[in-house]
Amino acid sequence: MATTELFVPPEPPATTAPRTRRGMPPLLRYMLVRIGLVIPMLWILLTLVFLLMRVIGDPISAALGGRMSPAKIAQAKAAAGLDKPLIVQYGQYLWNILHGDFGTTLTDHRAISNILVVNGAATLELSVYALVVAFLVGIPLGRIAARYRDRFPDVALRLFAILVYAAPVFFVGLLLKLAFAPLGWPVAGRASTATELTLQNVRPETHIMLIDAILWGDPKMILDVLQHAVLPAVALGLLTGGVFLRLVRVNLLQTLRMDYVMAARARGISERRVLGRHAFRNALVPVVTVMGMQIAMLMGGALLTETTFEWQGLGYTLGQYLLKRDFIAVQGIVTVFALIIGVVSVLIDFIVALVDPRVRF
Amino acid sequence: MLSTIRMTRGLQRVMLFTGFGIVAFFILLAILAPVVAPYGFNADRIGNVVFGTQIHPSGAHWFGTTVGGQDVLSRVVYGARTAVIVIVVAVIISIVIGVPIGLVSGYLGGPLDRVLVLIMDALYSFPSLLLAIVVSIIIGGGQSGFVTGILAAAISITVVFIPQYFRVVRNATVSVKVEPYVDAARVVGAGTPRILFKHILSNVAGTLPVIATLNASEAILTLAGLGFLGLGIEPSAAAEWGYDLNRALSDATNGIWWTGIFPGVAIVLMVLGVTLVGESLNDVLNPLLRTRAGGGSADEQEVAAEFEAAVGSDEVHEAVVVDDRDPKLVATLSLQDLTVRFDTDAGVVHAVNGVSFAADPGEVVAVVGESGSGKSVSTRSVLGLLPSTAHTTGSAKLRDRELLGLGSRALRPIRGDQISMIFQEPSTALNPVYTIGWQISEGIRAHRKISRKEARARAIELLDLVGIPEPQRRVDSYPHQLSGGQKQRVVIAMAIACEPDVIIADEPTTALDVTVQAAILELLLSLRDRLGTAIVLITHNMGVVADIADRVVVMYRGEVVEEAPVERLFADPQHPYTRRLLGAVPRLGAGNERPAADAKAEADKPITLIVDDLVVEFPGRIGQPPFRAVDRVGFEIRRGEVLGLVGESGSGKSTVGRTVVGLQKPTSGSVMVGGSEISELSEAQLRSHRGRFGFVFQDPAASLNPHLTVADCIAEPLYVQQVGSVAEQRNKVRSLLDRVQLPGAYANRYPHELSGGQRQRVSLARALALDPELLVADEPTSALDVSVQARVLELFAELQQELQFACLFISHDLAVVDSLADRVAVMQSGRLVEVGPRQQVLSDPQEEYTRQLIAAVPVPDPVEQHRRREARGKLLTDVS
To answer: Which positions fall inside the ABC transmembrane type-1 domain (chain A) (predicted)?
Structure first.
């Protein structure tokens, strides 16, 4: 290589040239910064939860008022520390959360941390199924819609996405129940009573029923658990999948207009590869970011889906305690939700960094 | 609203109208609920006759009855009333609260903004339904009345939406506030409230209908969700669809469908209607999704008008073609009678009308022209890279193979292998998420059957060939880790990867600084010599043409008007358009023909601007030292004098300009205008001084508020500084329009209806409205076509002679500065390298950097440029 003949004048150094920063790899550094940013967000959420839950008055009178003598209520309040000044209660609340203690429900004396483990696992299971459905629905259909922009498949898919969004998840659930109940398909709960009793009480390993059933090793049980999961997963997955479809479509259309897509075509890259590698990978960056925000929607949807299908997750449990006016339980579960959101948003940031090198370096 | 509907077409219009229809239906239903509904929403009997529970739909009860024995139809109708009221109240409250907070927070910035953003983001990340639940527990306890119940539900939903409005409005404000037209308003002394409402809100407000409709649909779902969970309005107070669905849930397993289906369908329909409206508005208003706006046509007409004004439009000019090619040679690439038309929404556009030219092996053919000449379109059609709205006729041959009419499958083996392209903007032509090595290898592997490893080795070899230092390491870099010049080298490496027969280079150096441009052109030439590639160079820069072209094709309005060998074209242009174009090109050294200013008389003039020891630093990222953009710069400008400030991108020249007019606070040092120190004044104190300086921005399209008429734009400084009565202001605007040679009728037009040159005239009129002592012009002509630039510069010089303001003229173009400035200052990386009289700095530079800068500028004269290249070659080799 005879580069010496070539004219190489001094060029201003690239301002973003890779800096050989000593110590931390850039990805780790980025993740630490993101985690650092989640902490104030969590703190604000927890403070809001605390303040909002105190505005309604003290939870003990709200739950037990009229059913207990005032003296007993006072005693219960003192026991729960509710007679102390607000700021002390607030300090206690944060301190307890730091130690993983979210309190105990008033009505049935269950530790909230136990609710997190048992019912949280159910919500996690449902969310994962729903996400699988959402990805299977949203991403391929979004790509098809973008590819046939403004032609029949696109119009049909967009209408589908809007319909799926417009139908509340509990109405979709109701329709599914109407359709499947006559066929004898299970329309409520996480498993048949026998399976559930075995898995929950005899040997609950993970509280994720599918895994527990597999560990138990009975194929009938596995089938039973899967059958129960289908309808809730479809109801919740369709809702999220519709959103994914629209996101993928819009972002693909935008990246397809980019110069680098034309540049790739001009290099003779096949159309499949242009769509699949060049446009899609770039479209994923905003899609993942917005999906992260959609997790909040998924949680809200999970709450309704669980109530519809009597799926005993966090949302279903929350609904039960709301009806019992057990606000200590409500506060505990809402706090748990806040923590889950914090963890999820860090996870999403991590995925974004994997997809987009500009964030990493 | 009407104009938005007019912008829609076909499917979009159907969606919009369907949406409007459904929404109107529900609103009517809500208003007429007592008339339409056969019974009350909670009635379970007429007189003493009970309806009965869960009765199948019948004549008496079209939709059947519920488990509670109420008429389903009546509940659905009254439910519409509840939904409409709650949504209207919720959307209004959240706009009224969210928008102003977002506006103020975004504009003021600082700690308040940061805290608000944190809180709102935290709220936003929380599941909206959960938030609504918490709020409804607090305010909903025991609200059994209709009004209080509805208010409680609306407020629960509002709390969810305020963060959304806040985020959208704040982010829009943050991006609008750095728009040049907001700076332009600040320069003339507009106060914060005026900027917020007149300039920012009007531009942010465009997104509000979209968010409001999309939120409305979410509001319906949230309300239904609350009702479903039993947390909505008390059932005795109002009918609510979500609550009904909850009650119907147990019916579903028993095959009773009517109690759930009807309220459910009502929800779906209403959300569908509102969403359709919002979606279509979003599609229409989102510029990124528009198929093709007719933009640029005003500029094309302006170029044509400039030409026709100069030569008279009725003369017929034949194309002048001087063909000295060896007839025995088969051209590598030849176009014959190529036409391209686009079928756009606005009608058929004939972009290229019968273009013919050819490029031989090892030849550099330059295709030159201004906006609308069709130079890019005709070359792109060769590779089939035009959008599907384009239709081509004629012939485009690669040697003897016809390319036009081939599908992309047939073209694929040719693209990148036999014909490759180099694009104008290297930072967008490279895919940001893949390493440059990956992208180069991909192109090679698309045409050659070689392994990944071999492709990578070839990529390293290519990077070395195009002069990227440390290719073994850089091959794994991502595009954003390279400088602009390096990125263009990578694009070139990709273009030559398969040793193509033809390279089409579309404005390959336009986005680059002159020294980098010189290097890239040199690289292209050396590759041509080495590989014998034919190069089709598309450019508007006559200097670049003179530097490397062998033959030149001049295009005008989609036609070739002249073709000739380069020396001949420059020495003896035949076609009037070519003559006109060459005449308009500013050339370095032309300034020497102007008489030098009388130094003695100059020295007697009062000093208008003194900049002394100016330092401007921008805070670095956490843990990084601050970035010093301007480093101890000092100069002065006298009355009637033009100081040209030149430098490459990132040299800090624009920051100096912004600091001089008080748009940027200096870190230290002083700026004195007309004897008063302005660098330490607050925004409010500065306001009374604003009349003393005008500012002309680079991008005329961005520096005029799109929502103000031309007259309002020009009158803004007068209005803000309260100069004269309304009638006097109107007169002043008229005389200013006259001054910048725009017809008075333009006063009522909007900026987007003007061409680039006209817009820059409006900017100039606005800058001169207050008769300033000092005018700062930041690259005022760099966005304009050559012939238009020439006219604007002429006007600028005339006005300056007449009004005798002091002028700081910032430009990257030494030739432009040469034609205008009395003195020249050169900046490099924040420091002032050299300052002195124009002739001395440009003809006899003292500093090494100035010398390099001048040597790198290609002059539009092939003979002179070849001489300069020889001389420069030595100078720059010395440097490197």
So the answer is: 120-352
